[in-house]
Specification:
single chain; about 160 residues; 2 domains; two-stranded antiparallel sheet; two-stranded antiparallel ribbon; 6 strands; about 10% strand; globular
């Protein structure tokens, strides 16, 4: 029994547990913050500054041919590469840091806000506190225009899929 506890503690020390949501999905924003931020900064800012969407394929300035292969050899496990790749591709398609610029004063970072306040229920993003649809709430929040409601609803839903 004593050896099992010691082996278990050593296992946790050398193989830290990633926050897992569902059976196989990881919190991609947590992963980026813990493995990539020190060198690359915020994922959205990094994506918009250094990566491009070339006909649906993510390209870096230096790694043009096969960014997935580079990512696999650059601190990501094989099962994390596609998920992080898709997150970064989505970030390149978001032309500006609107949540950061327009919402962070009250809500903090988008990923933290989604983790703490929102949940996907049957594919629809809802408030953890009220159970109300986020899209319905946004239509009455801060005098947002319909296109703003659509933008933020899509962005928050994407982030919810990345963190939950």
């Amino acid at each position: 029994m004593k050896y099992r506890i010691t082996i278990g503690l050593l296992w946790l020390l050398f193989f830290p547990i990633l926050p897992v949501v569902g059976a196989t999905d990881i919190d991609l924003h947590w992963l980026w913050e813990n493995r990539c931020t020190d060198c690359h900064g915020h994922a959205g800012e990094f994506s918009r500054q250094f990566l491009t969407d070339a006909n649906g394929e993510l390209q870096g300035r230096h790694h043009v041919d096969d960014l997935r292969l580079f990512m696999q050899n650059h601190y990501l496990n094989e099962d994390e590469v596609d998920a992080v790749y898709n997150m970064l591709l989505a970030q390149t398609r978001t032309p500006q840091a609107r949540f950061k610029n327009e919402c962070s004063r009250c809500h903090g970072s988008a990923a933290t806000f989604v983790r703490q306040s929102l949940k996907l229920r049957d594919g629809q993003l809802t408030s953890l506190q009220s159970g109300r649809s986020v899209r319905t709430f946004l239509a009455t929040h801060q005098d947002l225009e319909p296109n703003d409601v659509e933008f933020f609803a899509k962005q928050l839903t994407r982030i919810a899929n990345e963190v939950h």
